[in-house]
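Hello Y.,

Per our agreement to keep a running log of every chain we model this quarter, I'm adding this entry. I've kept the format consistent with earlier entries: sequence first, then predicted structure.
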Amino acid sequence: ENGLARTEYAQPALFAIEVSLAKLWQSWGVVPSAVLGHSIGEAAAAHVAGALSLETAARIVVLRGRHMEQTAGRGRMVVVYQGRAEVARELEVWGERLSIACVNSPRSTVISGETAAVDALVSQLRDRAIASRPVRVEYAFHSPQMQSCSEAFLRDLGAISWQPMQVPMISTVTGKRIAAGDLDAGYWARNVRQS
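Predicted structure for the entry above:
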């Protein structure tokens, strides 16, 4: 089995790549005007912004991956080649069974949720010639399925130490510019549950 197929290993690996690339760019004199990142990328962004030490950001990432791994086999994710607004209309009838997990581009939106609901929606979309592609995971990240994981993660995470930001950070949880003090344990728990 490929260890990186497990989120508890994949997330720290992604974090390490993201932080390393940022440090490489900075060594070349590339200084960002602002940073943002989706999902695990927010921890990297918070570190690059100066809000979190490498140790604190890495602790968030490792605990997050361990807790999210506990949800393996409970859901699925799929890329739908439609915009966010169109996909949101498709999901209205599904309630909390399906959620928007991520918007990759104006014509690429990731949905997440219960396996049966994902499969049914994909079938409906196929009948209407709307393209989709499965994400090769057995998780429903950024969906209501993450609620219990999010609560356990919050309990284990405890207090978060932070410093004033050196670079502005835009939150993909709130869609707004945030201050370092906003990046408390509750924020990271919402990051697991919300898109």
